[in-house]
Fold these 4 entries.
Entry 1:
Amino acid sequence: MTLEQQDKKYVLQTYARNYTNFVKGVGSTLYDDEGKDYIDFASGIGVNSVGHGHPILVEAIAQQAQSIIHISNLQVIEPQAKLAQKIVELSGYDMGIFFANSGAEANEGAIKIARKYGETQFEKKRYKVITLEHSFHGRTITTVKATGQESFHTPHFSPYPDGFSYEKSIADVYKAIDSETVAVLIELVQGEGGVEPFDKAEIQNLSAHLKSKDILLIVDEVQTGVYRTGEFLASNLYEIEPDIITLAKGLGGGMPIGAVMTTHKEILTFGEHGSTFGGNYLSSRAGLAVLEILSSLDDEGIIDEMHLYFSQKSKQLVQRYPKLFDKEVGLGLMRGLRAKDAQIQSAIVQNCMSQGLIVLKAGRNTVRFLPSITISKDEIDEGFRRFEKAINTL
Ligand SMILES: *Cc1c(COP(=O)(O)O)cnc(C)c1O
């Protein structure tokens, strides 16, 4: 049986998978089982924040695995407490953290915190959460309902939880607020929706308005967090003070970990929320290593340098190939090229793969780049050389 046959026979077919069998990764280069190399502009959908096989991360995981992998959240977990402190310090916000295992789970935690806040802090219960069209917040029944894309709300999975509504734009959020609104949940750069950054002043105004109404601002930083946009959090870049922030993807460098952080440290009490795996020894230790690596790169100014270098290269493509692309979009190392249509988008992603370059799709027509934060100039150069080869044939 081939690997493809084995996968198709035994794994539930929920992904339109590519069947290249990768066996090794070094930095931002991956190797398949035939020895062919690929430049990785996807980093496992923004997860491999420090690339593949980073020695500090590998050493941390190996050491931790040799001592303790997991006990449970019934005991104090030293690397978890350290990771929480590190995240809070890097964020600059006075918040407390709950650890989960994924982005969707972190968002579930955020929604629970908001719901309890709405239940306990007002005379009349507030429970409604406003999100945006083209947003993406996860795949659980609740977070899929929070996701502002009708195609995700198929009747197959109904009934969905009540209390979610979607607005077309930030400006529309103001009109949608009513006396039962408890929170607004947004990404600052919509990732899955098409790499769409929001305007800084618009977000700052919304944030101030919500504060004046005692409505919580939840920022889903599952994709934008952990230096993806240049700062530790996109919320830092936008200079806002959200009530709740969620993290996941890049935080563990590939180890599954999610986090919800909030200024409302007393809202949840014993037993109201929990997770068997969340923030265990192994994933927390990995998170610490990731933050150690990235915060020192940030201090040296290397993260800013790399995202400028990367974005210059991707912007040049729009000038050189105006027949293929409308514009270049994104923030930091979260970038996209708006293709003229979905057909061009698909052809590019496929051609890139044959040229030895991994890129992603986003939205209906965006080719998305989410390289690791530690990608080198050489890998960026080689990646864009391969990208041009891939689009030259179109
Ligand atoms: C990926 C993503 C999620 C979901 O994360 P999972 O780990 O797949 O559950 C939620 N929100 C945003 C913004 C994301 O990019």
Entry 2:
Amino acid sequence: MRETATAPTAPLRARAEIDLAALRANARTLRALAPGAALMAVVKSDAYGHGALRCARAAVEAGASWLGTATPEEALALRADAGLPADVRIMCWLWTPGGPWREAVEADLDVSVSGMWALREVSEAAGEAGRPARVQLKADTGLGRNGCQPADWPELVREALRAEAAGLVRITGLWSHFACADEPGHPSIAAQLTRFHEMLGYAEEQGVRPEVRHIANSPATLTLPEAHFDLVRTGIALYGLSPSPELGSATDFGLRPVMTLSASLALVKRVPGGHGVSYGHHYVTPGETTLGLVPVGYADGIPRHASGTGPVLVGGKWRTAAGRIAMDQFVVDLGGDEPEVGSEAVLFGPGDRGEPTAEDWAQAAGTIAYEIVTRIGTRVPRVHVNEGPSGQEPGDGPGTGD
Ligand SMILES: *Cc1c(COP(=O)(O)O)cnc(C)c1O
């Protein structure tokens, strides 16, 4: 095991260990699931809280040829990273007027365009930069979020082709995004695929020759081969989490959770029965017991909504957040056990040491696992382990994770 930060055994208040071997294995599993498609590793929002640069490098080592981010700033930071191959394609899709179009063109980013304002701004920047912009036209096939409505598609396609003829843009992709891919059989899935085929067909008839056509996120990559097209954009599955428990567990898909969040107990003490615990006294000890102080709170991204429900593994047993989760800390009732102060409290991980998973926290907080990992705060150090050049360390050979 190789570490990139403090050794895993170092006494830290809290740590999010990021297993890059697991991430590489997940990337290979996803590639095997979509063998005809290129793999885009979606590393927006600091790789869903896992650390964008190290995760991007690991994903590329495992065969991802594209990286995806929401904002142009995230994409530009990846392009500036010397640890990534210069030819890796980097796409970003969430633009606002006045964005860094010129920097994006000069950094050879693939930029998403959903409307005429964006096409105008990117064309102008390309003119100034003296080189064509790589543009991917986004279709709203039914999500109702970003993307071009079918009624506006002919104009966007026509003007993009005009800009291409003028040498200002190169239309590298046509793409869209699903609304309900995590609900197998939802009627919107087939409707969106039909609409996507129609909008692709129209653009291609008009003369667009995209390198890639893509619509699949993690759930579609895992369950809808007919949605793979030329490229799949996977975020959550790369981090070893299932997009939704209804779809199947991470294990069902051969994925391994990448993040383990743990903390060192800051205090263990005996208290009498009837003792209120934490703000508001929403928990009162049912009898004499021991309490353990877990030194992470909602400022670290531990959801306050999981007060009274969030699970923690301490000394081999599941304990529950007793009373309110505060900004920096919360308490667990240890039921009379007296683990040493400094003992490890595991909030979530892959689950194979008996610890809860991010999915368990999602259920405890009434949210999704995406939000649990993404919101872990910057005050929690990420400790990247198994960072291996070319992924050649033992036990990480071909086939792992399939
Ligand atoms: C976040 C995002 C993805 C990745 O979604 P997952 O469900 O995490 O795989 C793909 N495409 C777009 C446009 C996104 O915003």
Entry 3:
Amino acid sequence: MSVYHPFMSNQTTRRDVLKKGGLAAASLGVLGFPEWALPALAQGETVVPFTDLPATPINLTPTVDRRIIDISKIAGPITPRDAFFTTQHYGHPEVDPVAWRLKIDGLVDRPLSISLDELKKMGNEEITFGFECSGNRRPLQGLSSNGRWTGVRLRDVLEKAGLKADAREIVFFGADKGPEEVEFRGTVHKVEQHFGRSLPREKALTNEPMLAYAMNGEPLTKHQGFPVRLLVPGWYGVANLKWLTEIHAQTDPFVGKWQARWYRTLRGEMINGELKWTENSITHMRPKSFVARVTKAGNAHRVFGVILNDGTPIKAIEVKVDNGPWQAAQIDSATREKFGWKFFSYTWNGATPGEHTVVSRVTQADGLVQPTVEELANKKTFLEDNSQHERKVNIT
Ligand SMILES: Nc1nc2c(c(=O)[nH]1)N[C@H]1C(S)=C(S)[C@@H](COP(=O)(O)O)O[C@H]1N2
Ligand SMILES: [Mo]
């Protein structure tokens, strides 16, 4: 990803943050921080900039179809629709919502062609779902957001079409397409391909995957896949296929570029005492947390950050300053939804002037702990980087 938002200045004030998030003023606790953990800055609270960012700021200006969020400005649990991070591979396709039809074909008893109005009548389930692009990583961590989505359960649509018993793989195609070069044993084939992804039947028939037509109570924007996108709550961004036009049921696994080649992780794992190199496709989010900002109010400091995972309950979120012990941080009670991102905050008492490092780590109820950079050393491709991200600040 080469285009980003500009870095915020050091002068970000409570007003700037409130302007973005539209949050009401909070009652202030003894330390001058809001009693509730919502992330808007309190009166007089200022951001202490990270000093680990590259000396030459990365150009963060959004383009017509890409937007990276500035994590130091996150202003509320739900990301506004025009601030939601966005990216894709083939740009934005032109979709006429009147002519648009969702086709369901392949191994089904009743092939369907559903208009937008018909689809909306099939359901209006709601879910809060926050996701990150599987390529989200340091130093910016700006490829994630959280929305409140409305749509129809995928399962209901598949049941209406009647999946045949041998339909083991459900393939999704977007309206967007582009030229691809498919290399096979030395020969390069030039073809035009739609963006395609798949889900195994068992996953597709759970309660969770959704065909979403609205976010935050409004129709999807073209960035978000207007008129309809697939959402797979708990999975990385790439699974949430935008501008959906076709669902194709088949027996064999789908190994298209965006499923099997581009989006995969190569890592060395100890299996039965032997280092084995495995490649996996990108599915559910691995437990991750990152510090989004450190703030100062008077002499008090606060560390605020974000947790993303696949919906597995969270056992602990901790913060470490310099070489000190891991200390428990608090999860914001306004961010408790299973698939939503979660906010944490930690009151940093007795911060002394000078350079310090702050880092967070999340632990799931199933025992999985967010790994250190060293523990991920055997992951060779940059996707699924959920390593602990140490930040530097200079306390004055
Ligand atoms: N049709 C289509 N869907 C797509 C993509 C794409 O290129 N085409 N990109 C995926 C990737 S890699 C990500 S990270 C998310 C981004 O979703 P957003 O733009 O709503 O944030 O869309 C996913 N869905
Ligand atoms: Mo992505």
Entry 4:
Amino acid sequence: MKPIDLRSDTVTLPTPAMKQTMFDAPVGDDVHGDDPSVTTLQDETAAYFGHEAGLFCPSGTMTNQIAIKCHTSAPGSVICHELSHVYKYEVGGIAFNSGMSVNLVRGTTGLLTAQDVLDQLHDTEDVHKCPSQLVVLENTSNKGGGCCYDLKTLEEIREVCDQHNLKLHLDGARVFNALVSRGYSARDMGQYFDSISICFSKGMGAPVGSVLVGKKDFIHRAQWLRKLFGGGMRQAGYLAAAANYALHNHVERMQEDHSRAKAIEKTLSELDAVVKILPVETNIIIFQLQDYTNSKDFLAKLGELGVLAAPFGKQMVRFVTHLDFDDAQLECLLVALKQVDAMYKKEMV
Ligand SMILES: *Cc1c(COP(=O)(O)O)cnc(C)c1O
């Protein structure tokens, strides 16, 4: 039987209808700007978030890194969370690509408040300090267990950015999960940001690709940086068509991923081997194991029962629900979790 794969929402395969859309996509050479499917995706994604223009890139790391470089100029510093993807999982790109320093907000949720931004802000009058230029938020927060911002917090952070001449970028790798979970429109969220990185290869189910949205002149400059980073693609319309299919067909359905995640949370809360679960809001479930075991052992036991998941540190495990995880698999998973708990009880007698 094929394993139940909850390692990430990146593991999804294109659906038959998505594949057909890809086959049928009109394409051209996008480096020359004449791939109609890429242009459509860029325009429609930008309009969806209330922004002027978009740029299709191979990955979310690239859209984030291009945005950071576009918004900053060394010497300067970026305010972000210590758990954020841009800081932790982009190979130190903030320093390597943009020559920027970071001011990290500490905490367990991965979310920032306006006060956090004020606390990390570098005084531009002091010649010793590295001037703050950019704030990066992540919504949903991956390491924070998929938790989301409310619009009021975003509005307050925007205000601080305006008062202190800071740009505001959103790492929206899972922004659709945040929108669906909170019932916000993309425009309501989009209005607070100078730029947003949107991933289509995560919960949206497309095979490849992210779109960066922002103002026209910002995206114009971003085109140069995409070429510089080696991300200019030719007949990329086959990929863009998959992403555009997801934009039109895979947003609302995310509610299913979220309710399956809640069902997993409930079962986990009944297991002896689990000490703590981060509150589940979207499609990510992060939990901590008892000291008598660890993530390696727990995942080995689950693996024997046909379930794959990601270790998130020595005592922590992450599950991510997605398009290719259905109710039948959910039932199997819940049984497997109870079986693993029973194995520990047997080991301990
Ligand atoms: C996955 C992810 C990205 C981008 O990752 P790529 O694999 O480069 O597309 C960015 N931010 C967050 C929070 C992510 O989870």
